[in-house]
Design goal:
single chain, alpha+beta, 3 domains, 5-stranded mixed sheet, 12 strands, 55% helix
Length: 498
């Protein structure tokens, strides 16, 4: 199943496992998208600006026509009551690009110049009273539907009360508006491209290149994570990407350290397993010979024989702990109801505390107290903690010769949880051991220890769904509290039992 899952992932969107995924080109990557988005957004902005701009151009064009016609109209009006000859009128109309010129003055309107056959008017515009919305609507109408239509345009002359009126076709106006639109389009394209290029260069320098550098570093590091030369070299600037680069470098260094520790642990486990394979035979022979030493009548030999046996047992226990920690995980607990007092007595027998050592083991557990757990694993937890306490008490030299060396194991049930307390009157746990309490090879409280006992104990307790913690106590010594909850009872099982 695992191989099928991995195969399906490779056939999907994940990069090919044969090598790192190539970086996209500049114009197909993030910077290229930013380039095209910038062009599009600038063009949209120009479109929004275009309508007010061309409406203003149309109004200015019409005002220019009115001003030109007004100048000619004032001159013609000064010649009254004489009437302009037809040839002069035609020249005036041709010069102003109009069909009719009229002047409204003192409430009367006078026709200054007109064609022989006045055209029919299609639309009229008052330049003195035109809103922006109306102007843009008329502009759009001229651009789309204009050409060949006759329009009447009128407006005041300067600050005076005179009003000049013109009748003209919209052909010239529409032609100039199209030219203006074309020019605006070209200018918009140029502005868009220039803006996009500037943003493209700036974004590439400030963002894309650092991101590509980060990505390239991650690809190189993933190829050989144990190579120190492939750690990302971060700069000391204050930008977000610089901060991300420093975090990436710190993460890669920490990952290399972790990989090195894992490799060392793997090598250690392999080495110890090889050593343990041969050491078992050697220790078996040593145990047989040490058993024979107990039959020797020499008092000196009799006194050293038990110590030799304990030393061999410690060596075997040490190798077994290292091998047990090197396993991927502990076996799932096979839980059942076990008598905790009987289990504690087995721990006491296994410790084999020398009566002459002055170390006292006190069992304060009720004989009918039961815990729901794996008997072998709970035994290992209590044995590891008690053995650490015995070793600490044997190495402890109190200032008061009358001070007791005592290990107290107590327990009680509260609801569905059994709380086990292991307390000793030793020197207490050093500060360094407290900081690395459940860390392998760093949490040992004594010189030469491995710290694996607490690590294994914690793993076994957590497998039972419980907790283990170091308890602060006012007096000297060390106290651990273990809490093991019962398994939740299924409703069907409860009904069957009921």
């Amino acid at each position: 199943m695992d191989s099928e899952v991995h195969t399906s992932e490779r056939q999907g969107s994940w990069p090919d496992a044969t090598g790192p995924e190539p970086m996209p080109t500049l114009f197909r990557g993030l910077s290229g998208r930013l380039l095209w988005l910038t062009v599009i957004f600038v063009m949209l902005a120009e479109i929004l600006i275009f309508m007010p701009s061309i409406a203003s151009m149309r109004m200015n064009w019409l005002r220019d026509r009115l001003d030109t016609a007004a100048a000619a109209g004032i001159v013609i009006d000064g010649l009254q009551p004489a009437e302009l000859p037809r040839a002069v009128q035609n020249d005036t109309l041709l010069a102003t690009g109009t069909k009719v010129i009229a002047l409204r003055k003192d409430g009367t309107s006078r026709l200054l110049a007109a064609t022989e056959v006045p055209p029919e008017i299609d639309a009229q515009y008052d330049l003195a009273d035109t809103s922006l919305i109306t102007s843009m609507r008329d502009t759009l109408d001229t651009l789309v539907f204009g050409g060949g239509r006759v329009m009447r345009v009128f407006g005041p002359i300067g600050e005076s009360d005179m009003i000049i009126e013109l009748v003209m076709t919209d052909d010239a106006l529409r032609k100039d508006m199209l030219k203006y639109s074309k020019m605006m389009f070209i200018i918009s394209i140029l502005i868009s491209l220039m803006t996009a290029v500037l943003i493209f260069v700036a974004i590439n320098r400030m963002m894309i290149l650092p991101i590509r550098r980060l990505t390239h570093s991650m690809q190189l590091f993933s190829e050989q994570p144990d190579d120190p030369s492939r750690v990302f070299t971060a700069d000391r600037s204050r930008g977000e990407l610089a901060v991300a680069g420093r975090h990436l470098a710190a993460m890669q260094v920490e990952l290399q350290r972790t990989l090195k520790q894992q490799k060392n642990l793997a090598d250690l486990g392999l080495a110890v397993s090889k050593i343990n394979h041969d050491m078992r035979n050697i220790l078996a022979s040593a145990q047989l010979m040490s058993d024979r030493l107990t039959d020797v009548e020499d008092p000196m030999v009799r006194s050293f024989a038990p110590k030799l046996l304990r030393t061999i047992d410690r060596a075997v226990g040490y190798t077994n702990e290292v091998l047990a920690y090197g396993q991927a995980s502990e076996a799932a607990p096979r839980r059942r109801r076990i008598n905790l007092s009987v289990l504690t007595q087995e721990v006491k027998d296994m410790l084999a505390i020398d009566p002459d050592s002055g170390v006292e083991f006190a069992d304060q557990i009720s004989t009918d107290l039961e815990v729901d757990g794996d008997g072998e694993q709970i035994f290992r937890v209590i044995h590891n903690l008690c053995r650490n306490a015995v070793q600490a008490l044997l190495a402890y030299d109190p200032d008061d010769p009358q001070a007791s060396r005592r290990i107290t194991v107590s327990a009680h049930r509260l609801g569905s949880v059994v709380s086990i307390t292991i307390d000793d009157t030793g020197p207490g746990m050093p500060r360094k051991a407290r900081e690395n309490l459940f860390s392998a090879f760093r949490g040992s409280a004594r010189s030469g220890g491995t710290g694996l006992g607490l690590v294994i104990a914690r793993e076994l307790v957590l497998a039972h769904g419980g907790t283990i913690a170091l308890v602060e106590k006012p007096g000297p010594g060390t106290q651990f509290r273990i809490e093991i909850p019962d398994r939740p009872v299924a409703l069907d099982d409860y009904r069957v039992r009921a």
